[in-house]
Design goal:
This protein is of the alpha/beta class. The chain contains 21 helices and 25 strands. Helix content is about 35%, strand content about 20%.
């Protein structure tokens, strides 16, 4: 029987310590007679009785534990309690299966966010095959809880246990890297591991890897109902057909055709005359944007030497939305292939709407919160990951320590509590794929109430303690880090902190090193790297100054996107989902762009995990 997660949240305060467990034990339960409709979806209303658990409820109602939790947010904070009335999705009856259908079909219950697109990738069958065997599907739309009949791939080519390796997924590994390492096709790995969804691997996940030379297995992924060879853009639901749109695998770069790139920055050219810039005096806060521009120029110089031809259009927005609108009204901007900027939120929204209307890819080069905008505009590329994405990456790293104690220390602010809830949610989702995990211990300590004694009570002797402190309050961090460091000989502690701690002056780096401190950051520069050294040399010679962080950012963005355009053309966004090799490590930034939803723009899904070692060096561990 498949083992599922039990999540233990222990809330520690001075006067008491309470524990809530999501347990899954067998029990006999009668289905509720009460049903309701919410937003067109049917639910059972079930009143929880003594001894009932999430596991027994999921067995009775034939839904996953994750579905029950997602429909009842109170379960995340308080667990399943006697007397609670919870919503449970109504699942359509599974059709009666004869022996023939059992052998030839898989019966799949549709989960949240699943689509025909994700199911055909999961089970390696065509969409037409799914529709053929499920005539009740209308307009290609499937519903959560719906039971689908999925044809099994030909089992004549099934592989015995002696014909595959077991591989535990390590940091930064992808389907593509594993296919290269073991010299097998990605489809072959997915064939043996149907739990892989959308090609995403989870750290610590154990995969079956076929041993080589099984050509018969490769034929299983061929769709014989489709006489055309599959194109990369077949996997992007937003692909549009119009004059000049070239399929990814057919694009051939011609150096005589110039790419047109527009750069929109608040440079305040009139205020920043050349004499003042030479003296290092910039108007207001424009220095970093000149650094970005100069980094871009170094990248362009290198790209031209590699054979890329381009025209650069530089627009001074002056940080003014009226000026931006004037720029957008010019006819030349309609014909550019890529827009970088603007940087301020209101101005970027104007430019993003223009880019959407004219089907031009646009890049947000600086940290901004465009979560809502990127979900509705498929031409946006956001280089800085959202808080949700950063938390997901850190949770994946922490999940590698599932056999340890996870403790969160906060100071009671609403922002910290919001981040903690996000970590809970991501950790639950991450651990769902760990079949051998029976329990996650997740302790919270309100430092304002419990103080250091509450923290020490939460720490476990003999276990590795993963301590998460999602705060940027320097006084609070200085106090707790100092006290934890004093106890380093009693407990094994690894602290996960915030990038903002880098700028704190009241924390001794010795304490952070003692606590094996880790944190996530989008920016990391290895000054020993040869390419970084070459960039610094070129920058100094060209501008007679030292590159700032925005100089590296301007270089990385320009170098990445122009190389992608050289490979796939100006409509490169259709090619990204099908090319896992497009992860690119820059001088400071790394890029791994993914759509947030099948119809959204792209967000950079990369986060560097940095560790402070015993010699006080910053070491990149992921």
């Amino acid at each position: 029987m498949k083992t599922v997660i039990k999540l233990l949240f222990a809330f520690l305060i001075i006067t008491q310590s309470t524990t809530t467990t999501f347990s899954q034990e067998n029990g006999s339960i009668k289905k509720s007679d009460k049903q309701i409709f919410i937003l067109g979806k049917k639910y059972y209303l079930h009143k929880v009785k003594r001894g009932q658990t999430l596991y027994s409820l999921s067995n009775t109602y034939k839904v996953s534990i994750q579905q029950i939790i997602s429909e009842n947010s109170a379960l995340l904070s308080g667990g399943l309690q006697k007397g609670m009335e919870i919503k449970i999705p109504v699942v359509e009856n599974i059709p009666e299966q004869n022996s023939d259908s059992k052998n030839n079909f898989i019966y799949h219950t549709v989960q949240i966010e699943e689509t025909l697109y994700s199911l055909k990738n999961k089970y390696l069958v065509s969409k037409e095959e799914i529709l053929k065997n499920n005539p009740e599907i209308k307009d290609d739309k499937i519903k959560v809880g719906q039971v689908l009949k999925i044809p099994k791939v030909n089992n004549k080519s099934d592989i015995s246990q002696g014909d595959y390796y077991f591989h535990k997924v390590k940091p930064s590994e992808t389907l593509f890297s594993l296919s290269q390492q073991y010299r097998v096709k990605m489809e072959s790995i997915k064939r043996l591991n149907p739990e892989i969804i959308n090609g995403v691997l989870i750290l610590g996940q154990t995969l079956k890897i076929p041993k080589g030379n099984y050509s018969s297995m490769e034929t299983l992924v061929i769709d014989h109902n489709n006489t055309e060879e599959p194109k990369y853009y077949d996997y992007d639901p937003l692909y549009f057909e119009e004059a000049g749109t070239i399929p990814c695998d057919e694009f051939q770069y011609n150096r005589f055709v110039k790419f047109k790139v527009a750069l929109m920055l608040p440079l305040f050219i009139n205020e920043n005359n050349s004499a003042s810039i030479t003296k290092g005096k910039y108007y207001e806060k424009t220095e970093k944007f000149y650094e970005l521009y100069q980094g871009l120029l170094v990248a362009i110089n290198k790209l031209k030497k590699s054979g890329i031809s381009l025209e650069l259009y530089v627009y001074d927005t002056e940080g003014n939305s009226d000026k931006v609108q004037k720029i957008l009204n010019t006819s030349e901007l309609e014909n550019v292939d890529l827009i970088i900027g603007p940087v301020y939120s209101k101005n970027f929204r104007l430019a993003a709407n223009f880019a959407h209307n004219h089907k031009i890819n646009i890049v947000s080069p600086v940290p901004q919160n465009f979560n809502k905008l990127v979900k509705t505009n498929p031409f946006i590329f956001v280089t800085n990951p959202s808080l949700e994405t950063k938390v997901t990456n850190l949770s994946n790293q922490m999940a590698n320590s599932y056999d340890r104690s996870i403790i969160v220390i906060h100071n009671g602010t609403s922002e910290e509590k919001k981040t903690i809830e996000l970590f809970k949610d991501r950790l639950v989702k991450t651990f769902t794929s760990y079949e051998n995990i029976n329990e996650i211990v997740f302790k919270q300590v309100d430092y304002k109430i419990s103080g250091i004694n509450g923290v020490l009570d939460a720490l476990s002797v003999g276990l590795d303690n993963i301590v998460l402190i999602p705060s940027s309050d320097e006084a609070f961090i200085s106090d707790i880090v100092t006290r934890l460091s004093y106890n380093k000989n009693r407990y094994k502690i690894t602290v996960y902190g915030m990038k903002s701690w880098e700028s704190f002056r009241n924390i001794q780096i010795e304490y952070l090193a003692n606590l094996n401190c880790h944190y996530g950051t989008t920016s990391y520069i290895d000054y020993n790297n040869k390419t970084v050294k070459n960039f610094i040399y070129q920058y100094r010679n060209t501008f007679n100054s030292e590159p700032g962080l925005y100089s590296y950012l301007g270089y990385d963005i320009t170098y990445y996107f122009l190389n992608v355009m050289k490979k796939y053309g100006k409509h490169f966004q259709f090619c990204l989902p099908s090319d896992p090799n497009l992860k690119k490590n820059g001088l400071m930034y790394s890029f791994n762009f993914q759509r947030i939803t099948p119809l959204s723009g792209f967000e950079n899904n990369w986060l560097n995990i940095i560790k402070i070692d015993k010699n006080y060096n910053l070491i990149k561990v992921k």
